[in-house]
Amino acid sequence: MKKIHLYLISGFIFTAVFGTLSHFFYGWSDGNPLIGLISPVNESTWEHMKLVFFPVLIWSFFITGSDSKLSPALRPALLLGGFIGTLMIPVLFYTYSGILGHNVTGIDIAIFFVNAFLAFFCAWRLQNSRIIYQKRTVIYILTVLFLVLFILFTFLPPDIGLFAEP
After folding, report:
1. pTM (2 decimals)?
2. For residue 40, how many other CB atoms are within 10 A of its CB?
3. d(Cα 112, Cα 6) in Å, to the nearest integer?
4. Whole-angstrom distance, CA of residue 4 vs CA of residue 2
5. Which of 8, 47, 97, 110 could make an SS bond with 103 (beta carbons 3.0 to 4.6 A apart)?
6. How far apart are CA 34 and CA 161, in angstroms?
7. How far from the centroid of its chain's Cα atoms is residue 6's Cα?
């Protein structure tokens, strides 16, 4: 189990670093549309949800066969944690900015780190869950659905607040 904990701590660090850097990838790439698929292309809340989703998704591919034997629910638990962390970004952003009447960059940054931590904390807590293991197919389908929505809405965003730049 120590190996699993090290994997999750390393994943949080990876997500914190990759997510932070990916905020700038699109600009650094001079607007490369392929880079825009996994990194924010503007300052909308939707695009900032990519900062947690994609690093967690990428990190989930580093689960080895021996990790899966130690904890069969690890990958679906991590992906579910990634959903929770991703979906909490707009919840926390709109809650605090609605209360204050404006957004604060420092709080926005803190929300990212809190939700990156939340994703891996959930994975740690759920890694031995029989229910999570039994529902893994649903979690994998939701992961693909989110992936498709991120790709689609990067270039064809709906005209609603979640996709508007604040």
Report:
1. 0.93
2. 21
3. 21
4. 5
5. 97
6. 24
7. 19
